[in-house]
């Protein structure tokens, strides 16, 4: 059984359980496996976690149009880089670049996280907070913003701003980032950087996003949950 199959099996089990504690435990198990994989690759100097590209989501319509936004935020959070490649003026695909472990984590966790976004939207809609489709968009916006904040904390830690990180973990994170940056520069020489923009959300959507369950992967750092 390869690493993708192992992680998929654990996440599937987390999705099927009705126990929040068991889901947390299973995701922590998946997280631990991914971190171990990265640290071993760094310490042994082998190619067991190669940098490369995986095709992610394509442009979608309706509330699902915000799903790629969540995937891009997750990818960066897990240590990957995303490029939006346009086929024409209306169709695009997300390309996820980074270590294999980060790319696999992004792929497998996207559906798990998006299911929670939809469930939270239904819960708020049933409580009279608005229409489900509009709430999906607002929760997705709030979730992407929250992940971005945690990613910024992660990047500060990788620079050594957080004294709780170990020397090995910090070096590992920086080596991974440097390798990813080099891969992007080689394969996307004409890439244009774009800045993000403010997106509509509400307090109810932000509170819902804070409760969405996801584990953090930082190549040996602490495990955190959004909202923890």
Describe the structure.
It is built from 7 helices and 3 strands; from the N terminus they run ααβαββαααα. It has about 230 residues and is mainly alpha-helical. It has a 3-stranded antiparallel sheet. Strand 2 (about 80-85) and strand 3 (about 90-100) form a beta hairpin. The longest helix has 27 residues, at about 100-125. The two termini are about 30 Å apart.
TL;DR?
The protein has helices at residues 3-16, 20-44, 67-77, 100-126, 132-158, 167-187, 203-210; strands spanning 51-58, 81-86, 92-99. With 228 residues, it is mainly alpha-helical.
**How much of the sequence is in beta strands?**
5-15%
Characterize the largest beta sheet: strand count, sense, and whether it forms a barrel.
Answer: 3 strands, antiparallel
Order of helices and strands: HHEHEEHHHH
Gyration radius, in Å: 17 Å
DSSP E strands, number: 3
Low-confidence sequence ranges: 41-46, 162-172, 216-228
Q: Name the helicity range.
A: 55-70%
Shape: globular
Which features characterize this protein?
mainly alpha, disordered C terminus, 58% helix, 228 residues, three-stranded antiparallel beta sheet
Blueprint (SSEs and pairs):
Blueprint: H1 3-16, H2 20-44, E1 51-58, H3 67-77, E2 81-86, E3 92-99, H4 100-126, H5 132-158, H6 167-187, H7 203-210
Antiparallel strand pairs: 1-3, 2-3
Helix pairs in contact: 1-2, 1-4, 2-6, 3-4, 3-5, 4-5, 4-7, 5-7
């Amino acid at each position: 059984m390869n690493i993708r199959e192992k992680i998929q099996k654990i996440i599937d089990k987390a999705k099927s359980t009705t126990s929040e504690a068991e889901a947390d435990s299973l995701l922590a198990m998946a997280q631990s496996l991914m971190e171990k994989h990265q640290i071993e690759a760094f310490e042994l100097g082998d190619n067991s976690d190669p940098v490369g590209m995986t095709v992610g989501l394509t442009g979608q319509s309706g509330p699902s149009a915000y799903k790629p936004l969540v995937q891009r935020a997750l990818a960066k959070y897990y240590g990957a880089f995303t490029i939006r490649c346009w086929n024409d003026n209306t169709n695009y695909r997300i390309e996820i670049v980074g270590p294999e472990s980060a790319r696999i984590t992004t792929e497998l966790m996207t559906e798990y996280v998006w299911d929670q976004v939809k469930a939270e939207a239904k819960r708020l809609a049933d409580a009279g907070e608005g229409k489900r489709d509009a709430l999906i968009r607002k929760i997705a916006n709030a979730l992407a913003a929250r992940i971005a904040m945690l990613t910024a904390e992660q990047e500060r830690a990788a620079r050594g701003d957080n004294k709780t990180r170990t020397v090995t973990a910090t070096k590992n994170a920086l080596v991974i980032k440097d390798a990813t940056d080099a891969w992007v520069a080689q394969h996307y020489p004409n890439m244009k950087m774009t800045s993000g923009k403010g997106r509509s959300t509400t307090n109810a959507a932000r509170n819902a996003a804070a409760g969405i369950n996801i584990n953090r992967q930082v190549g040996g750092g602490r495990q955190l949950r959004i909202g923890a």
